[in-house]
């Protein structure tokens, strides 16, 4: 397991992170260290703060207390240039895909590397084609998002995130909006990424997938990391009543 | 006494209609430019700026255009500026249009899902890049029909500039009436000319709406 290698610089270090929406505190002090290449599955009831935690990592949500470091770089919420640098390192995939409907699949993928990295057109084109091939959609380069199935759209979204060459991917319930028969094709892409050593932080309801792919499962409850551990132990032998109850509610 | 034929009346009105069209275009183009800047200010994360724009919009939507024209005309004179009716009319109409266009466009931008902004943010795009490449192209499609529709309001709004002495279609109509004593013929012609300017615009707005809905 990658966590045992104790690398010099963790991919992600979160310490004492607290986040409130108004008077409602949704994250009540999160401490978490993620090693490079580690695959983390975050599970828990809705409202437990798991999506909010994920969104804090790339600054889609601001937090009030605590620190967050990506690859040794502290997240500076008020520094636009620093946030831009951070977001190039951390990709995100959303539950609702959020592809740009007015752009073709190819342009969806090429937009950000072109604007942010200022890559020349031929490099962009080559990269977009290569990534589309990797997610199995080479022939969809000129299609518009609304011509694709949900599973295909989500695979394009993965290719779009990868085009920025991130060191870490955040996956926010990426199969929850999909018809059951389309879930597999998306998870297969994510599994391949995990095998290639991508650092993954995924909020998921797919327990079988979490068990199969993740190195560590984190159970969140009421804004805290309630229990964590390797999937085989966590699922087989939950230590807390809350996790036991959560797991049995899924049966 | 000189007899005025219908052609004399129409010819003179047509000459004046040029200024109605020109004034409308200036107000519309000027209003669009100012309106776009106001839109960006309103969408920015700067709270005070956003509230200032909202107040600006309320001010122009909550007062008659006629008062705005008076204030521009007499207010500029009071400030010691050399005011012509041209400057006063274009200034007032530009500001008036900018307030309404900002409001229309703001609604269109709000109709784009937050996920589109977030996808742009997550891909490290800056605010202006998100706006230019992701939000405005989508909001623009929705905005075309109401924007063109508003142009019709601007054309009719220019009639009010006759009150501060700007010689456009309506003012020319009044002047010709005073010379010909044929108010019904003259004002019918004036109305017809307004209709001939406005109808194609609203017809175009409708066809655009249909075309964009179809895609």
Task: Give structural notes.
- The complex is a heterodimer of chains A (251) and B (215).
- With 251 residues, chain A is α/β, with parallel strands linked by helices.
- Chain A has a single domain, classed as 3-Layer(aba) Sandwich (Rossmann fold), CATH 3.40.50.300.
- In chain A, 38% of the residues lie in helices and 24% in strands.
- Chain A contains 9 helices and 10 strands.
- Chain A has helices at residues 50-57, 80-89, 105-116, 121-134, 150-162, 180-195, 207-213, 231-236, 241-250, and strands at residues 12-21, 24-34, 39-44, 65-70, 73-74, 90-93, 168-172, 199-203, 216-221, 224-229.
- In chain A, the strands form 2 sheets. Chain A has a 6-stranded mixed beta sheet with strand order 6-7-8-3-9-10, sandwiched between helices. In chain A, strands 2-1-4-5 form a 4-stranded antiparallel beta sheet, with helices on one face.
- Chain A is globular and about 55 Å long.
- The model of chain A has no long low-confidence stretch (mean pLDDT 94).
- Chain B is mainly α and 215 residues long.
- Chain B has a single domain (6-214), classed as MetI-like fold, CATH 1.10.3720.10.
- In chain B, 82% of the residues lie in helices and 0% in strands.
- Chain B has 8 helices and no strands.
- Chain B has helices at 6-43, 47-61, 65-78, 85-110, 114-122, 127-157, 169-180, 183-214.
- The longest helix of chain B is centred in the N-terminal third of the chain and has 38 residues, at 6-43.
- The radius of gyration of chain B is 21 Å and the shape is flat.
- The mean pLDDT of chain B is 92.
- The chains are: A alpha/beta (251), B mainly alpha (215).
- Chains A and B meet through helix 2 and helix 3 of A and helix 5 and helix 6 of B.
């Amino acid at each position: 397991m990658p966590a045992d290698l104790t690398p010099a610089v963790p991919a992600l270090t979160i310490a004492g992170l607290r986040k409130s929406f108004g008077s409602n505190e949704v994250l009540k002090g999160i401490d978490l260290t993620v090693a490079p290449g580690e695959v983390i599955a975050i599970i828990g009831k809705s409202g437990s703060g798991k999506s909010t935690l994920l969104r804090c990592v790339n600054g889609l949500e601001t937090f009030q207390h605590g620190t967050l470091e990506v690859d040794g770089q502290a997240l500076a919420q008020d520094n636009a240039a620093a946030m831009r640098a951070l977001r190039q390192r951390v990709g995100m995939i959303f539950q609702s895909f959020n592809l740009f409907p007015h752009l073709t699949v190819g342009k969806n993928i090429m937009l950000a590397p072109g604007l942010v990295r200022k890559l020349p057109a031929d490099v962009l084109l080559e990269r977009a084609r290569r990534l589309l091939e990797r997610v199995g959609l080479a022939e969809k380069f000129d299609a518009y998002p609304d011509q694709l199935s949900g599973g295909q759209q989500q695979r394009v979204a993965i290719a779009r995130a990868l085009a920025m060459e991130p060191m870490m991917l955040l996956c926010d319930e990426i199969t929850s909006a999909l018809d059951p028969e389309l879930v597999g094709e998306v998870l297969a892409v994510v599994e391949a990424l995990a095998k290639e050593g991508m650092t993954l932080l995924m909020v998921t309801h797919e327990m079988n997938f979490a068990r199969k792919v993740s190195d560590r499962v984190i159970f969140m409850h009421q804004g805290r990391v309630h229990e964590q551990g390797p999937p085989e132990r966590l699922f087989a032998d939950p230590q807390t009543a809350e996790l036991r109850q959560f797991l049995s509610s899924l049966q | 006494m000189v007899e005025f034929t219908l052609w004399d009346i129409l010819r003179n009105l047509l000459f004046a209609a040029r200024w109605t069209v020109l004034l409308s275009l200036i107000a519309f183009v000027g209003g669009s430019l100012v309106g776009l800047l106001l839109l960006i200010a309103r969408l920015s994360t700067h709270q005070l700026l956003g509230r200032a724009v909202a107040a600006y919009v309320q001010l122009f939507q909550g007062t008659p255009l006629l008062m705005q024209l008076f204030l521009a005309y007499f207010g500029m004179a009071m400030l010691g500026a050399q005011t012509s009716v041209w400057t006063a009319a274009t200034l007032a109409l530009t500001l008036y249009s900018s307030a309404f266009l900002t409001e229309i466009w703001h609604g269109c931008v709000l109709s784009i899902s937050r996920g589109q902004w977030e996808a742009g943010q997550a891909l490290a795009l800056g605010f202006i890049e998100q706006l230019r490449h992701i939000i405005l192209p989508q909001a623009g499609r929705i905005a075309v029909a109401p924007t063109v529709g508003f142009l019709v309001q601007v054309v009719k709004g220019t009639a009010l500039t006759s009150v501060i002495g700007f010689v456009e279609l309506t003012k020319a109509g009044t002047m010709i009436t005073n010379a010909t004593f044929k108010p019904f013929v003259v004002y019918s012609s004036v109305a017809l000319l307004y209709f001939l300017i406005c109808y194609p615009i609203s017809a175009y707005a409708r066809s655009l709406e249909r075309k964009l809905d179809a895609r």
